[in-house]
Write a structure and sequence with these properties.
By secondary structure, the protein is α+β, with helices and mostly antiparallel strands. The chain folds into 2 domains: about 180 residues, Thiolase/Chalcone synthase (Peroxisomal Thiolase, Chain A, domain 1), CATH 3.40.47; about 150 residues, Thiolase/Chalcone synthase (Peroxisomal Thiolase, Chain A, domain 1), CATH 3.40.47. It has 14 helices and 13 strands. β12 and β13 form a beta hairpin. α11 packs parallel to α12. It is globular, with a radius of gyration of 19 Å. The two termini are about 35 Å apart.
Length: about 375
Amino acid sequence: MWIQFVCVHTGILGCDLQTAICDVMSPAMSKLTTPSMTTSVMAAAAGGHRAGGSTARVRFGNHDWSEFIDTTDEWITSRTGIQERRFAADDEATVDLAAHAAETALADAGLEAADIDEIIVATDTPEAYTPDTASFLQHRLGCREVPAYDLGGSGCAGFVQALDVARARMMLEPKRVLVVGVELISRLMSWEDRSFCVLFGDAAGAVVLGPEGGQAEILDVVAGTDGSKTDILTLKTGGTRHPFNEESLASGAYHRLDMDGRRVFREAVHRMSGAITDVLKRVDRSVSDVSLVIPHQANKRIIDAVRNQLGVTEDRLYVNVHDYGNTGSATVPFALWEAKETGRITEGDLVALTAFGAGFHWAAAAVQF
Ligand code: COA
């Protein structure tokens, strides 16, 4: 028992470890491997039309970008499928979007902040360098002194990875876990790097996981990492290898993300389709059983390639990247909520979530509504 406990705390993302832990757990404990879930999200949407009121937010179309940088609507649309994105207002930061998403998720679940037993925030664009966004969020929401921590730096895969972590935590103890994916990439990116800035937007999404009584069950989650590919998507400056200094400030390197777009593209397609295949195999289901695939919304061409690899028809794939761009770890919970709100998900549906991100990380979840 002691070894199981240590493993969970030191190797929390390893799906093989989780499998090993599941294997030795008692039948009573394994009942907790299917936590229920209630979803709710908030996008940085103009007029706060998503999930209730919020302060004014900035809609930014492709034509707006073409006034800033050397780009065109035609280039952005044909290479990415993105037509518009939303940016947070100047007076907002990460915890503002996260809190709104979390409050709406709590209301949707019929819960109060005091009911939450643990908080995980997936973000690469935190409220502060330290402490983590989850600490700010815990206080903002008025939660009890429960564990709260970030899953940071894992790029756009963060939210689905966080579901995996939450699920593993719930295997040990029945608890209610708030999982948030939030990103204010507009604060981090260079507004002059045309090959990068046109891809992104700001948003937040949240789900509440509990042992019973939710809208859906998480049947299983898989996650993986290939650390030999840290170079294909990275923001180096600010870490201990490349600390902030006058030179990085003067050159703007502190917000320069290095991305090998073509390699990221290839890896994304390969890993997301592989992760969905793996998770379905683990729950003894096939792609034909899936009512809706919700992939990370980075690029319509990536999504189409995943669809082709899986052999899924267009009507069984959720796409909203044209409206919001890539909102990092918020894309999956946001798309999940939007799909639910617009009737694309109904009771009895099997939904497959998948994401990839800097690391190189990937993850997928099978969710039964
Ligand atoms: N407007 C106009 N031209 C642009 C541009 C823009 N916004 N951004 C780049 N270009 C130019 C490039 O400079 C290049 O010009 P050159 O041929 O004269 O050198 C040309 O367009 C082609 O660039 P290329 O990189 O070949 O385009 P692509 O078809 O590979 O598309 C991405 C680029 C970034 C859209 C694509 O590689 C991609 O989506 N990759 C995955 C990125 C991703 O998802 N990142 C997030 C991970 S979570």
